[in-house]
């Protein structure tokens, strides 16, 4: 018997949060490169955290 693959995890909320925070930091510090770097790093970290959370929740 074949099992159906799990539904993919949506990362839209994490990307929106990271973008808003990155833009805010970039505008506040007047350094858009810093804001972009923080936004990208935060988006990756939030996405990894959500993927791990959803995976643990699915396993039991």
How would you describe this structure to a colleague?
Helix 1 (12-29) runs antiparallel to helix 2 (32-59). With 60 residues, the chain is mainly α. It has helices spanning 12-29, 32-59.
Offer a few descriptive terms:
60 residues, mainly alpha, 2 helices, 77% helix
Nutshell version of this structure?
The chain has 60 residues and is mainly α. Helices cover 77% and strands 0% of the residues.
Using the alpha-carbon principal axes, give the shape: elongated
Instruction: Provide the helix percentage.
Output: over 70%
Question: In terms of per-residue confidence, which ranges show pLDDT below 50 for 5 or more consecutive residues?
Answer: none
Oligomer: single chain
Strand content: under 5%
Distance between the termini: 21 Å
What count of helical segments does DSSP give? 2
Radius of gyration: 16 Å
What is the fold's blueprint, element by element?
Layout: H1 12-29, H2 32-59
Helix pairs in contact: 1-2
